[in-house]
Amino acid sequence: MLFEQILFFLAAIAALAGALGVVILRNPFYSVLALASHLIALAVLFLLLRAEFIAAAQIVVYAGAVMVLYLFVVAYVGGIDEPPKGEAGAAATQLAPVFGAAIAIEITIAVVGTGLAAIDTQGAKLESGFGSPGQIGEQLLTKFLIPFEAASFLLLVAAVGAVVLARRRRGLEHLDEPGSEPGPDSRPAMEGHA
Amino acid sequence: MGSALVFADVNFAEGAGVQILKSLIIFAVVLQIVPIILMADRKVMGRMQSRYGPNRVGPYGSMQPIADVLKLLSKEQFTPRSAVPWMMALAPMISITAAVATIAIIPFGDRGMWGGDVGLYGIDVSIGILYAFAFGALSFYGPLLGGWSSGSKYSFLGSMRAAAQLISFEVAMGLSLLGVIMSAGTLSLVGIVDQQAGMWFVVPQIVGFIVFVVAGFAETNRVPFDLPEAESELVQGYLTEYGGMRFGTYFMAEYVNIITISALVTTLFLGGWHGPGPDALGPLWVILKMFAVLFLFVWVRATMPRLRYDQLMSLGWKVLLPLATLNALVTAILVVVT
Amino acid sequence: MLKSYLPALVFVGLGTALAVAFVSLNSVLGPNKAQGNLSRAKGDPYECGLPSEVKGNFRFGISFYLIAMLFILFDIEVIFLYPVAVQLEAFGAFALVETIVFVALLFVAFAFVWRRGALDWK
């Protein structure tokens, strides 16, 4: 039990540090890495909550797939560490603290609103097999059938969107290509190998 | 629906002392396989190419891996001026840690096979194979960070290639196992082996088997899929700026991954510890089958030429992915109808 | 249940120990020269004879972005289908129909992506 608590605090600290790193670090590449470590720490927290499948899914989907996309986007944009420019950027900087404060107040109300009644208890009773893939599958096929099928439709829309957007960007890419960068184009390093 | 969760064995755990002890033993055993494979890789391939392979150090060259490691250890450690040194050190650590952590999932035998109430595996949990996928997803950061932090364009190109290749084949790999999971009705690897008492899954799941093995070759960057370190194009890919034992660490992680993949093939498709003879021989069967798969790795390496990058990508996306999906659908129909 | 994860922790610990040892051993056993005064050629990143022209950052093709996007989609598909596959036999025909609908929708997406040439590596 003590061991579990130590693990909880380690993971919680890592999660907070990762989250802070995302905001504080200037280099987008490091920000993405901080986000990845934050997500891994979250997976540990899920595991401590007995949500095994969610923990695995968290790592496979978020740390393993979404972060890949982020890293590729950073590589695509070039990892330029400049602050966002333009009026939209300036307005965002002005408004960010306001929204941040609003969210902080909301969360505080939500947490305090529960009266922290559950904090000294062991939490809800767990049925056997809780959080296992078998139980998740059962839930997906009964209680959450519509979200499950809607997810596949969402994925369809996302696939179409990605292709359409990439097409549009491809047109732009040809404009700023000549001589601007050391040999980056959409076919990396395939030349020279007949 | 509680009946489907009866594989409650996944909640079984020995005492903490036993768990730590058996982890140490499994770790030691698997680590011994690394130099054997390193050696076999060169010896067998040498024979296939009508050469001797290493035969100078020790009897029949058997001390060669030790000599190699000693050489690597005596190198000077330096990083290029354009590199990010701390991250260059961190990157191979991620690779090897993820590779070693995955070993825990390999089941060498069932509970009580060697007496006592001890499972001959590191862990057997309900997420089973997803545990391996989770650490596989993390090991992706090793080559990527290594290539990025080296500050060399060959490293960077190699790491991007490695990343794109890994993710392309991970999808096919995941889908190819759907058939096995549907047939077994569990993700637990021990449960999956138990289900193969009558027939190994390689027979009904031959398509899944082929897709999994091909994707496994690609995931471990083996020939013919060793494009991330294709020396004729990219010098050494993400390894270009690495030397000494850090280079060796990447290499060792790769070999540990190969061992894990062969163990997974054994477990998921080749019946795990099932084989003739008494139950106690189970772990030996696992290791024997692993070596058979490892021999296949070497054989393919000696036989196949390297693919071109666009061929590699279309193999992953246009051949393996549809094949694996179709296999899953057909299996789903067969499982429900019969 | 959490108890059965203890060996995983042990293995992560062993892996980390191995990693730390391997990565730092060279500085102990190998020749030790100050990292600061590498000669010009030695400190340069590798290049085939030409002067190195590496800049701080690189830019990369959009193909990688597309592949990563598709990877996310299919990864989520896999994650959704695994638990359903576990329950396939228990739920029978109902689960089969749901699985087929799920996969068919994604196959439409896959066919679209293929037709638009996003899978051709350029």
Describe this structure in words.
The complex is a heterotrimer of chains A (194), B (338) and C (122). Chain A is mainly α. Chain A has helices spanning 2-24, 28-48, 52-77, 86-113, 133-141, 145-173. Among the domains of chain A are: 1-79, NADH-ubiquinone/plastoquinone oxidoreductase chain 6, subunit NuoJ (Four Helix Bundle (Hemerythrin (Met), subunit A)); 144-177. The longest helix of chain A is centred in the last third of the chain and has 29 residues, at 145-173. Chain A is globular and about 50 Å long. The relative contact order of chain B is 0.14. Chain B has helices at 16-48, 64-73, 85-103, 129-139, 141-149, 153-176, 178-184, 189-194, 206-219, 231-234, 244-268, 282-303, 309-337; strands spanning 107-111, 119-121. In chain B, helix 3 (85-103) packs parallel to helix 11 (244-268), helix 5 (141-149) packs antiparallel against helix 6 (153-176) and helix 9 runs antiparallel to helix 13 (309-337). Chain C has a single domain, classed as Methane Monooxygenase Hydroxylase, Chain G, domain 1. Chain C is flat, with a radius of gyration of 25 Å. Chains B and C meet through helix 1, helix 3, helix 6, helix 7 and helix 11 of B and helix 1, helix 3, helix 4 and helix 5 of C.
What does the main sheet of chain B amount to?
Answer: 2 strands, antiparallel
Can you tell me the residue ranges of chain B where pLDDT is under 50 for at least 5 consecutive residues?
Answer: 1-8
Q: Which architecture name of chain C does CATH use? A: Up-down Bundle
Number of helices of chain B: 13
Provide the succession of SSEs of chain C: HHHHH
How many whole angstroms does the radius of gyration of chain B measure?
20 Å
**Text of the CATH class of chain C:** Mainly Alpha
> What is the CATH third-level topology name of chain C?
Methane Monooxygenase Hydroxylase, Chain G, domain 1
| Termini gap of chain C | 48 Å
Structural class determined from secondary elements of chain B: mainly alpha
Q: What is the H level of CATH, i.e. the homologous superfamily of chain C? A: NADH:ubiquinone/plastoquinone oxidoreductase, chain 3
> Termini of chain B, distance in Å?
20 Å
Order of helices and strands of chain B: HHHEEHHHHHHHHHH
Note the beta-strand portion of chain C.
Answer: under 5%
Helix vs. strand class of chain C: mainly alpha
* Total beta-strand segments of chain B: 2
Count of distinct strands of chain C: 0
In terms of quaternary structure, the protein is heterotrimer
